From TrEMBL:
<keyword id="KW-0131">Cell cycle</keyword>
<dbReference type="GO" id="GO:0007059">
    <property type="term" value="P:chromosome segregation"/>
</dbReference>
<dbReference type="GO" id="GO:0051301">
    <property type="term" value="P:cell division"/>
</dbReference>
<dbReference type="InterPro" id="IPR007128">
    <property type="entry name" value="PMF1/Nnf1"/>
</dbReference>
<keyword id="KW-0539">Nucleus</keyword>
<keyword id="KW-0995">Kinetochore</keyword>
<dbReference type="Pfam" id="PF03980">
    <property type="entry name" value="Nnf1"/>
</dbReference>
<dbReference type="GO" id="GO:0000444">
    <property type="term" value="C:MIS12/MIND type complex"/>
</dbReference>
<protein>
    <submittedName>
        <fullName>PMF1 factor</fullName>
    </submittedName>
</protein>
<keyword id="KW-0137">Centromere</keyword>
<dbReference type="GO" id="GO:0005634">
    <property type="term" value="C:nucleus"/>
</dbReference>
<keyword id="KW-0132">Cell division</keyword>
<keyword id="KW-0158">Chromosome</keyword>
<keyword id="KW-0498">Mitosis</keyword>
Amino acid sequence: ESGDGGSEVGAAPGRAQLFSAVVDTFLEKLVAAGSYQRFAGCYRSFYKAQPEVTRSIYEQFVAQLQASIKEEIQEVKDEGNLEMLFNSLDKIVEEAKNREESAWRPSGVPEEDVRSALVPYLLKHRSYLRKGLREKEQENKAAAESVLAGRSRIEELRRLIQARRQAWQ
């Protein structure tokens, strides 16, 4: 019913086509499970009285059920924008096939998985902290030199004051 793009590029069917095929298979199995013989068995007395009408009612029931299910599935596809999502997922998978490095997969050991994610962050943070430490050490060195220069100036002024006091006395 819906145009799933039967002329899509690539040999493998897309996810939208697979979804439609699954729905169609489900409908076929549903109709097979609710065969005419079972239907007629449930309404045995009516079937014995009017077998042609029973067949007609069964066919209408099955057609209506299939149409209703297809309509509901189409509404779900439209509301969830499944066609676009399936197509974008197909593109992501195709792009992943062309990558040379393999995608990350969990190892099954949470400590190792966390470590593999945290180590790069922690190394970057350590580098940032070391840079900040170097800057602070330079600031402290400059402040210490300034303090030493100030102490030298104070000592020089103290000697000058002492020399003037002795000269004045």
